[in-house]
Amino acid sequence: MFVLSAIGTLAYLVQRFSGEEITGLSRDVSWGLFIANYTFFVGVAASAVMVVLPYYAHDYKAFGRIAVFGEFLAVAAIAIAGLFIFVDVGQPLRSFNLLLHPTPGSPLFWNTIILPVYMLLNLLIAWSILGAESKSVPPPGWIKPLIYISIPWAISIHTVTAFVYAGLPGRAFWNTAILAPRFLVSAFASGPALLIVMCVLIKRFTGLDPGKKALDQLGVIVLYSMILNLFFIVLEFFSAFYSSIPAHTHTLQYLFFGLEGREALVPWIWTSVGLAVAGTLLLAVPGVRRDYTLLAAACIIVFSSLWIDKGLCLVVAGFIPSPMAIITEYAPSLFEVIIAIGVWAAGFLMLTVLYKIAISVKEELAG
Amino acid sequence: MEVTRRDFLKIAGASTIVGILGGWSAVEVLAPGELEQQHLPKPGALTAKRWAMVVDMKKMDEATMKACIDACHRAHNVPDIDDPKSTVKWIWLEPFEHAFPYRHHEHVADSLREMRFLVFCNHCNNPPCVRVCPTQATWKREDGIVMMDEHRCIGCRYCMAACPYGSRNYNWTDPRPFIKKRNPDYPTRSGGVVEKCNFCVERLAEGLMPACVEASKGALIFGDLADPASEVKNILNSHYTIRRKLNLGTEPSVFYMV
Fold first, then answer.
1. Which domains, and CATH codes, for chain A?
2. Could you tell me if residue B19 is inside a domain?
3. In a domain, B156, yes or no
4. What separation in angstroms does the CA of A358 have from each of A47, A61, A72, A117, A223?
5. How confident is the model at residue A175 (pLDDT cuts 50, 70, 90)?
């Protein structure tokens, strides 16, 4: 992980000093892999609420052993999202202008404020609960209100991320009221799917058992979120194609079928659809959800599907066709891919450290 | 001398606060942009309540339009980058189907279909780019001109996603080596910031018409939309004009007479 992030850092330095022309971005497609991944990982972070809400608000005991892992996953996901913004902007050293010139009218400004706060909330909650556990004392009283605040906060971070896109007048593909719900349900599938995979890995490498019931239940959450996600995409298709307003159909046409012979994203989106259907069907089988290996496999399928959809296609396709009705395609350059892998690696390095701490506390208690 | 933990923390805390305050004031004092932005109105400066442009396509020909583009790009040190992916252009030509995408259809008159239009920033009355900018690096002046502070811009490119006209450019690389002949009276930009047409605020402040208007031989008419006696207002009263993507509610200040 460390080596990968070091290579990513080097690639970023090359981009910094030779200019962003080494990316695959253009005047027409001005956001790509980085901003799409930022969007995707804000979703992963927000999805911690799918563990936090049942466990703390409804006292759903089965999630007791994985709540901390969900919160730490949110912390690392926010770090990844923030890093993706940092590597994307042209003048990162001017980032403080976001705070020096606060602009409440801009969703990006709100994201700058609420994402770090969300990260801090989760870190604080997980840390103090873990601390209390290790000392075998009840968690401090002041943590309760923070937990309750973190629940609507999680919803808000991904809603605001959707607002970044949904409020733009010239981009009909994003300019849809269902974008925020779509963001949330796809997040509630991708985040818990990743958490399940992590839990299965933890079980395999440390023997720490998250509990069959907890993972089964998480699998059900992923399942229903996926069904809703697919349903919402069908709704988008209906509104666009039944009304057949050109501005609303063009991007969907480009993304799913190709437009004017240009179809770079078509194989990607159909791969995503195929994986989504396969993953959803697998998760619908109770036997799959109760077998750690099969469950993890289904979750990897779901996660890959959603990453292709949101971590690539959704953002890129929004720029195609351009405001001039010109089709300029985009593919990330090798440098972008290396930098992205570096950011992922840095995030997972952070996650490994946090999980290591959590696991050692839990093992100490058990042993 | 023994430094206790408590003393150490005190000193560390105090110096942190001093450091933050010092850094902050340095930023406030040294921050570029504020002063450069203040084009103090000189006697003879052209002023208006809402600047607007009429493009008279009947008087336009390709040579005139190229002259307009040249005048603008030379005046503003716009780099000459051939690669369409990273090109920077403040004012350029588009055929009807690209300038007016959802107005174009299969039965549009041949004369229109073959015509190329001068396009540039619309200086919208309700500009989405200004709405989304997280640092107020782009803003609307009281006279309606949508401005860009390339010193404050962090290069997030949100404005490019917001602009429904493709009027905004990002400097994907350092533009300076691509400037053919540098105009010393206008600043150049660094890489990693967004730039676009500014309706020649620097010339208006000197009492001059925008560079493109001067080069247009009367085909571009620039004036005050809020002044009932202005030439632009007269033209709009007596001719049918169109604006780009009016349905989006951005209220462009550029009108086309076809």
1. 2-366 (1.20.1630.10)
2. no
3. yes
4. 19, 18, 9, 21, 27
5. very high
ipTM here:
0.94
A242-250 contacts, C-beta under 8 A, 24 or more apart: A245/A172, A246/B102, A247/A172, A247/B102, A248/A172, A248/A173, A250/A172, A250/A321, A250/A325
Scanning B51-90 for CB atoms below 8 A from A yields 83-87
Q: Supply the DSSP symbol for A262.
A: B
Count of structural domains, chain B: 1
**Chain A residues lying within 8 Å of B157, measured CB to CB:** 30-31, 90
Least CA distance to B192: which residue of chain A? A90
Tens of pLDDT, residue by residue over A223-275, are 999 999 999 999 999 999 999 999 999 999 999 999 999 999 999 999 999 99
Q: What is the pLDDT of residues A45-85, one digit of tens each?
A: 999 999 999 999 999 999 999 999 999 999 999 999 999 99
Q: Which domain holds residue B191?
A: 31-257
Asked whether residue B52 is assigned to any structural domain, the reply reads yes
* Cα gap B201→B252, rounded to integer Å: 18
A chain contacts of residue B83, beta-carbon cutoff 8 Å: 21
Query: Does the residue B10 lie in any domain?
Result: no
Q: What is the CATH number of the domain that holds B35?
A: 3.30.70.20
Single pTM value for the model: 0.91
Q: DSSP letter for A259, please.
A: B
